[in-house]
Each structure stands twice: as structure tokens, then as C-alpha cells.
Specification:
This protein has 97 residues and is α/β, with parallel strands linked by helices. The chain has 2 helices and 5 strands, in the order βββαββα. The termini are far apart.
């Protein structure tokens, strides 16, 4: 595979093989307004979408869509315990911390 056709983002699996990263999920607090502030994560999400990746945001911990990568972005001083449990429901190698 040439560098031009290779996936730009890869996920290392527990056995060391690489898989293409396709679905990115950003976890935000349930009361955070969409696209609030000038956060880098907003720019990154736009760039990943341009690259053809499926990027979605979840507000709160009620829904748990499938994802290859979970990015917690809870803008609070302390992360509530239910958000920690939500993050733990994903495989450890799929959580960006």
C-alpha cells in the first residue's frame, strides 16, 4: 500500500496488529452546549471528518454508540463517576487519555 492510499490513523490492537481507525466518539458533558468555545477538539473533529472518518459526539452517558476511539472531553474540574464508568465500558486501548 502506498503512503497516499494508506489510512492516516491507525489503532493498535491488543495483539499488536494494526487496524484502520474508522469511528471516533467524543464524550462531552450532558449539559455542554454543542460546539461551545474554541476548543482544539472541534477543529480536530472537522479535520477527521474531511479525512473521511466517522466522528460523532455523545452528550452524557445514556447512549453508547460503537467506536474505535473514545475521546473524553468533559469540561469540568472533576469528572463525575458515571462518566468514568462510561469510559471503562470501552476497551482500554480505544480510550484517548
Amino acid at each position: 500500500m502506498s503512503p497516499a492510499t494508506a489510512p492516516l490513523l491507525r489503532l493498535r490492537t491488543p495483539i499488536g496488529e494494526e487496524e484502520a481507525l474508522k469511528r471516533i466518539l467524543v464524550l462531552r458533558h450532558e449539559f455542554e452546549p454543542p460546539r461551545r468555545g474554541r476548543y482544539l477538539i472541534n477543529t480536530l473533529c472537522e479535520a477527521w471528518q474531511i479525512m473521511g472518518l466517522n466522528v460523532s459526539c455523545v452528550y452524557g452517558v445514556r447512549d453508547r454508540p460503537e467506536a474505535d476511539l473514545l475521546i473524553p472531553h468533559v469540561d469540568l474540574t472533576c469528572t463525575p463517576p458515571e462518566y468514568i464508568e462510561y469510559m471503562r465500558s470501552f476497551p482500554p486501548q480505544s480510550i484517548a487519555m
